[in-house]
Write a structure and sequence with these properties.
six-stranded parallel sheet, five-stranded mixed sheet, Rossmann fold, 2 domains, P-loop_NTPase, ATP binding, 11 helices
């Protein structure tokens, strides 16, 4: 079962259908009759890729059937469950007839994902590739203490660390807008996206950044998953996210291409939650990154653990110690 994030997608692969071999992708087209994905689906396909909402709609309208589907892949399970798609996914399960193989992929394994897997899958087998929740070894992580009032000015210096493209994450929409406006005033070719902007504006910004017409993209976590940009040199966390899972997803936007390295810079200060900093310290140690003195002095005894049955795991990834 494979789950996805920001625009979650379900990849459904019927294995034994006597139908054309051309795959189809269902996208967010505005109408049913003119959508190429719908037209192709009616003719029959071997592979379907869809968001849960679109797939649910097509199942309800009987445009597609899962009677022949024997293989279900759900990508980025952690993000999908976070976004409230669990009920939709369980409903989609009910449309299957007969036996199927289900694969669930997740970069992190918090307790809610473990509970979902136990309840939704039959005798699931867990396969770890690396460590769940661990940061990419292709990313150099730098954590800097920056006072709140000094962050936006220091941002310009931070941008000089690497050539573009650079991705900047902020927690609040108003901070994204403020950073974007400041960078434009300083002559930086920047665009911004967050949930408060309309789809056309977001699409235009994403395309400009993807085509490298713009050097900097400022975003909320809407860009931390589901959007893939080639050759991002530097990720800047203007704010440390509320949990280290999101941190891992954010910095994973750089160092993605084979043989390439990326840089991630994170601003923290006295307003940053200490429990998140403890998880960040643990993550840096595991990735063999430099731990700054203000993190190293935090008491490791305060680290939280979650119950994994007969064993314990760390709070940010759920992996046994």
């Amino acid at each position: 079962m494979r789950l996805v994030s920001t625009l979650p997608q379900l990849a459904i692969i019927p294995a034994e259908c006597p139908i054309p071999t051309t795959p189809t992708t269902l996208t967010g087209c505005r109408g049913w009759s003119g959508c190429r994905g719908v037209v192709a689906t009616k003719k029959g396909v071997h592979i379907m890729v869809a968001t849960p909402g679109r797939l649910m709609d097509m199942l309800d309208k009987k445009i597609v059937t899962l009677d022949w589907c024997r293989y279900l892949v759900m990508d980025e399970a952690d993000r999908m469950i976070d976004m409230g798609f669990e009920e939709d996914v369980r409903t989609i399960f009910s449309f299957f007839k007969g036996q199927r193989q289900t694969l669930l992929f997740s970069a992190t394994m918090p307790k809610k994902i473990q509970n979902f897997a136990r309840s939704a899958l039959v005798k699931p087998v867990t396969i770890n590739v690396g460590r769940a929740g661990a940061a990419s070894m292709n990313v150099t992580q730098e954590v800097e203490y920056v006072k709140q009032e000094a962050k936006i000015v220091y941002l310009l210096d931070c941008l000089q660390k690497t050539p573009p493209p650079v991705l900047i994450f902020a927690e609040k929409k108003q901070d994204v807008d403020a950073i974007h406006e400041y960078l434009l005033l300083k002559g930086v070719e920047a665009v911004a996206i967050h949930g408060g902007k309309d789809q056309e504006e977001r699409s235009r910004a994403v395309e400009g950044f993807r085509k490298q017409e713009k050097d900097v993209l400022v975003a909320t976590d809407v860009a931390s998953k589901g959007l893939d940009f080639a050759n991002v040199q530097h990720v800047i966390n203007y704010d440390m996210p509320d949990d280290v899972e999101n941190y891992v997803h954010r910095i994973g936007r750089t160092g993605r291409s084979a043989g390439t390295k990326g840089l991630a810079t994170t601003f923290i200060n006295k307003s940053t939650d200490q429990s998140v900093l403890l998880d960040l310290k643990h993550l840096l140690i595991e990735a063999k990154q430099k731990v700054p003195p203000f993190l190293a002095e935090l008491c490791s005894e305060s680290e939280k653990y979650l119950d994994l049955g007969d064993s314990q795991g760390c709070s940010y990834c759920g992996s046994p110690q």
